[in-house]
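To whoever is on call:

I kicked off a structure prediction for a single chain this morning and the downstream step that reads the tokens threw a length-mismatch warning. I double-checked the sequence; it's 149 residues and nothing unusual in it as far as I can see. Pasting both halves so you can look.
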Amino acid sequence: MALESASLLKVGLVLLLAAQVLPSVSACNGGFYERMINDFCLAKFRLDMAGLDPGLWCSWPPTTEIYEGLTNCTYQVALKVDCFWPNQVVDRFFMQVHRVYFHDCALTGRLLHDPPIAILAPFIAVPVLITLLMTALVVWRSKRTEGVL
């Protein structure tokens, strides 16, 4: 009798847990959520990115506010349609956004550019001068043979 009531209690707890979890899991309509974020979030993101020079897409400061707006939009839509956030739909959505807008960006998220001439010049001039100096020293030393041995 005690064994039966213990197993009945376990089954009851499992059913209670399932009743709490399953409605929130199954309430999300992934297709509807995907359409909503494409219609609302992606449309606004496209407009905002169109207003930004494509040369600046890889520079984090100009795009951070736009990107945060897109992230927040997907979160707010997920709340409205009773979906978890993040989820697989959001992952695929952001992968597509990155393929279209950020595919040429460096991993650091910064726009790559040449250093200023004040930094670049010494890195070029010093090895060239050392090479010329060493060449002149070898030539001078080879012509001066007295006192070598």
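Update from on-call: the warning came from a stale cache, not from the record. Cleared it. Sanity check on the structure: Residues 15-24 have pLDDT under 50 and may be disordered.
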